[in-house]
Every structure is written in structure tokens, then in C-alpha cells.
């Protein structure tokens, strides 16, 4: 029997189909085992904050992924790749696990307000944030930088970074005037309106008894008229909306109408008992306000021009302005009152109207809703408000100031947020007028200068769109003035 057992052992060894126990590891097995260990070590090195602790490894991206055969395979790593494995701590994983398990719990349909507030307070105290607003998965930290010289061959399909074409450009407002014109013998009178810009790009300036026209296109200066009496002076100027007709209010209680193209006076209209310091056009209706406090409506188409008188102010009318639709007339007087009058042929219906008022002593700009009678907004400018003008290109308001700043300020409408300050005048700003394209304002001040500020230029795209929208219209007054 012993001989039989020995023969079986020899036969098994020679057969070589059974595993050899206690034998050294084969070379191919040692090579495979070494390659697996090296690859896993490299993957661990790419994971920031990698630790050998079992509890911490749960919060990291696992270094091994399941293979097709159900076995664990090591995630390959390529040197110089752009793969980013985010860092997540235990607290984030605990919150995510809690939120996932909470989805299976029945919801409380009638939670009390006190209970909800208490739960929120406890959550903020314990966690530092409201658990109800927490995310199931939150990735923090910054990705690692790619190695030097690495090139990514992938194409960008979408990016939130705006292209240079769609990037919004900052608006540039020059701090110095584009041009300065001398205005000798200008009357430094707060109640007069001595400057106006026509639709034909002509700037009218009244210098005591003389009326000058400056062609903003050609740069030419023309003396249009001069008062006959030395003691008389021009108190107000106003261009008709379209055309070359200019109205003048004078100290001898008259309103003159001039054809500028032919340099000819068409008519002189009387009726006031004091100087005429304010004028405003509404198609063929010319409104004039005087020191007596009265406002006259003139129909310049007919010989009997005076059609109506508005009485309300107890002191000089120093400001007149028709609304853009011609339905209402706003008047301001030295009695610290502003009146809003209906149009000549308007009924009692009113829409939403905003009136902008500037104060002298109280230094405020106030915006009123005339329909409701409420003050929408008010701003203390810390300076005497001597003139106001609306700039439509950017929906802004321009104010001229006297003591103590003697400057021009641009405000956003209707928030009255300051946009820019224009400094340069050495005396109080008396009047402001706007160029036909609304890109430039002209200001005249007690320092006897007229300054032009290009503060509202549109970009070329918007400018062309605006020019297409504007239709050239001619007024019927061209054929009907007598």
C-alpha cells in the first residue's frame, strides 16, 4: 500500500494540472500585482485631501470603479489630464443622506408657523444654514490647474461669457465743454429766457438789446435784430417746433414774430402791461407770460391774435412749457407756484402728467403727478436750481444751478440718481436748451459765456434707428402767418 501511495504522488506531480501549494509566486503574477498597485497609488495622489482613513474615504470619489465582471477595477489616470475630482467632506455627505431619506417620509400637511420657525432656528444654530434650503450635493473647491503645455482638443459648445459684440460699452460723458461762445452784455436775470435752439440747428441768443443767431452747422454768426430804444431789451426767445419762425418777448410789453430765413419781422403783438419774460409754442398757438402774472394765448394765423388770457399768478411768470402732446400748459411764477392749464380746445379729461419743478430758495427738484396731486420724488440739490431740461436720448434730467455750485448736473429720471456733473461756468447758470438731435445741450450763465456740452450722443446703431423713426413734417403755419 505504501508503494501505491508513493506512485500516486509521483503521478500527480508529473501531471501538472493541480495547484502547487507553498510555491513562490509566478513572474507574470508579480508583474500584474505591481502594475495594479502603482496605478491605484497614482489615482490616490490625484485626489486632493486623500486619506487612508476608512470613514474619510466615503466622502471622496472612490479610487476604484466596478468592472463588467463585477470585480473592482482601478480608475486609469493619464498624466496631464484635465479630470477634476471634487472634494466633499463628511458633513456634506451626511446632509445629502438625510435629505434623500427624508423624501420617503410622509409630509406634514398642516405644519404650524411656530413649529416651522423653531425648526429653522435649530437648523441654523446647529448647521449654520437652513436644512430645508440645503442641496443634496454641493461641490466646493477649485479645480487643479492643467500641467504646463497641456492642450485640450475638445471644442467649446456653449459659454456664458458674452462675446465682444454683445458686451455693453460704458457711456462716456466729457467733463469739458465741446465749444465756448462769448456772450457779452448778457443780462444776468434769473427770470428771463435768453437762449433757444431751433430744429434747423440755429442757436438764438439775446444779448441785452441785440438778437444773435449762431449756425451750429456752419459756425456763422448773424445779427438778426436790435431794439430801437436804447433802454429796451429782449426778455425771451422761442423757436417754433418746425421752421424758421422765431418769437421774441421784449421789455416794452410786446411779442415780436420774425422770419429768420428772410431776416424780416412779420408782426408785433401787443396786449401785455409788463415785460414778457417767457414764451412757448403749441403749433400755431403762441403763449406768452409777463411780469404782471398774466398769460396770453396768441393765434398767429389771424389778425386778431389774442384769443385768451390766463390769470392765476400774483407775480412774474418766469417759466412756460407746453406738454409734448400739446394738451396742457405748465407755468411757473415768482410767487412759488406752478399751474397746469388745459389746452385751448381741451375738455376735462386728464391722463397721467408729471411736472418737474426746480426751487430757488429750497434748492429742491420735485416731480409731481398732476392727476393725483402727489409728489413722486424730491431731491435736495444743495444749490439754487435755476433751469431744468429733459434729455430724451437717455431719459435723463439736466439741471442748471446758481449759488453755491454754479454748475450743470445730469440726473437719471425718475430716480434722480446723479449721473454726472459738468463744471466750468464761473457764474450762475441761467438757461439750458437742447440741440435738434438731443445729443448736445447749450448753457448760458452770468459769466457771459455760452457752453456746449456733448453729453447725450447715441451709439451709431441707435442713432440710425432713431433717424429712421423721425419723419420730416412741415407746419401749416408756413402758409398762414399774417
UniProtKB/TrEMBL annotation:
Provide the protein name. Cell division cycle 20 homolog
Tell me what organism the protein belongs to.
Oncorhynchus mykiss (Rainbow trout)
| Positions of the CDC20/Fizzy WD40 domain | 181-342
Q: Does the keyword Repeat apply?
A: yes
Q: Which family does the record assign?
A: Belongs to the WD repeat CDC20/Fizzy family.
- GO cellular-component term (any): anaphase-promoting complex
Q: What keywords would UniProt list here? A: Repeat, WD repeat
Region annotated Disordered, chain positions: 27-87
SUPFAM superfamilies, per this entry?
WD40 repeat-like
Listed Polar residues bias regions: 50-76
Pfam families referenced in this protein's UniProt entry, alphabetically: WD40 (PF00400), WD40_CDC20-Fz (PF24807)
Coiled-coil zones:
none
Q: Bias regions of kind Low complexity — which residues? A: 32-45
Task: State which residue ranges cross the membrane.
Answer: none
PANTHER family registered for this protein in UniProt: CELL DIVISION CYCLE 20 CDC20 FIZZY -RELATED (PTHR19918), CELL DIVISION CYCLE PROTEIN 20 HOMOLOG (PTHR19918:SF3)
- Gene3D superfamilies the UniProt entry points to: YVTN repeat-like/Quinoprotein amine dehydrogenase (2.130.10.10)
Gene Ontology MF term list = anaphase-promoting complex binding; ubiquitin ligase activator activity
Amino acid at each position: 500500500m505504501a508503494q501505491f501511495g508513493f506512485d500516486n504522488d509521483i503521478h500527480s506531480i508529473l501531471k501538472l494540472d493541480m495547484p502547487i501549494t507553498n510555491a513562490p509566486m509566478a513572474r507574470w503574477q508579480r508583474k500584474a500585482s505591481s502594475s495594479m498597485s502603482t496605478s491605484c497609488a497614482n489615482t490616490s495622489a490625484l485626489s486632493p485631501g486623500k486619506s487612508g482613513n476608512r470613514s474619510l474615504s466615503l466622502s471622496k470619489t472612490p479610487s476604484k470603479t466596478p468592472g463588467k465582471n463585477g470585480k473592482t477595477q482601478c480608475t486609469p489616470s493619464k498624466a496631464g489630464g484635465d479630470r477634476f475630482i471634487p472634494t466633499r467632506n463628511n458633513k456634506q455627505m451626511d446632509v445629502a443622506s438625510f435629505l434623500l431619506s427624508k423624501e420617503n417620509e410622509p409630509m406634514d400637511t398642516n405644519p404650524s408657523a411656530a413649529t416651522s420657525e423653531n425648526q429653522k432656528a435649530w437648523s441654523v444654530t446647529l448647521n449654520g444654514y437652513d436644512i430645508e434650503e440645503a442641496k443634496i450635493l454641493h461641490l466646493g473647491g477649485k479645480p487643479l490647474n492643467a500641467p504646463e503645455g497641456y492642450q485640450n482638443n475638445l471644442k467649446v459648445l456653449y459659454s456664458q461669457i458674452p462675446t465682444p459684440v454683445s458686451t455693453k460699452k460704458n457711456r462716456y460723458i466729457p467733463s469739458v465743454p465741446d465749444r465756448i461762445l462769448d456772450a457779452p452784455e448778457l443780462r444776468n436775470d434769473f427770470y428771463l429766457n435768453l437762449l433757444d435752439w431751433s430744429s434747423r440747428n440755429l442757436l438764438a441768443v439775446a444779448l441785452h438789446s441785440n438778437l444773435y443767431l449762431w449756425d451750429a452747422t456752419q459756425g456763422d454768426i448773424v445779427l438778426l435784430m436790435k431794439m430801437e430804444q436804447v433802454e429796451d431789451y429782449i426778455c425771451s426767445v422761442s423757436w417754433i417746433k418746425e421752421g424758421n419762425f422765431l418769437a421774441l418777448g421784449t421789455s416794452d410789453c410786446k411779442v415780436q414774430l420774425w422770419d429768420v430765413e428772410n431776416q424780416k419781422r412779420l408782426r408785433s403783438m401787443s396786449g401785455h402791461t409788463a415785460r414778457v419774460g417767457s414764451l412757448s409754442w403749441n403749433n400755431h398757438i403762441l403763449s406768452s407770460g409777463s411780469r404782471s402774472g398774466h398769460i396770453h394765448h396768441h393765434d398767429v394765423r389771424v389778425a386778431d391774435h389774442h384769443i385768451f388770457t390766463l390769470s392765476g399768478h400774483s407775480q412774474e411768470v418766469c417759466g412756460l412749457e407746453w406738454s409734448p402732446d400739446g394738451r396742457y400748459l405748465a407755468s411757473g411764477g415768482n410767487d412759488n407756484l406752478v399751474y397746469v392749464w388745459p389746452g385751448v380746445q381741451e375738455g376735462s379729461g386728464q391722463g397721467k402728467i408729471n411736472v418737474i419743478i426746480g426751487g430757488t430758495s429750497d434748492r429742491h427738484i420735485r416731480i409731481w403727478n398732476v392727476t393725483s396731486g402727489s409728489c413722486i420724488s424730491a431731491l435736495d440739490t444743495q444749490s439754487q436750481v435755476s433751469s431744468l431740461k429733459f434729455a430724451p436720448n437717455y431719459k435723463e434730467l439736466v439741471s442748471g444751478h446758481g449759488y453755491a455750485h454754479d454748475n450743470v448736473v445730469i440726473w437719471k429720471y425718475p430716480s434722480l440718481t446723479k449721473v454726472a456733473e459738468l463744471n466750468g461756468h464761473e457764474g450762475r447758470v441761467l438757461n439750458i436748451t437742447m440741440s435738434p438731435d438731443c445729443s448736445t445741450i447749450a448753457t448760458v450763465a452770468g459769466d457771459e459765456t455760452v457752453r456746449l456740452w456733448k453729453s447725450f450722443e447715441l451709439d451709431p446703431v441707435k442713432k440710425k434707428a432713431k433717424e429712421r423713426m423721425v419723419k420730416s413734417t412741415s407746419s401749416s403755419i408756413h402758409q398762414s402767418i399774417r
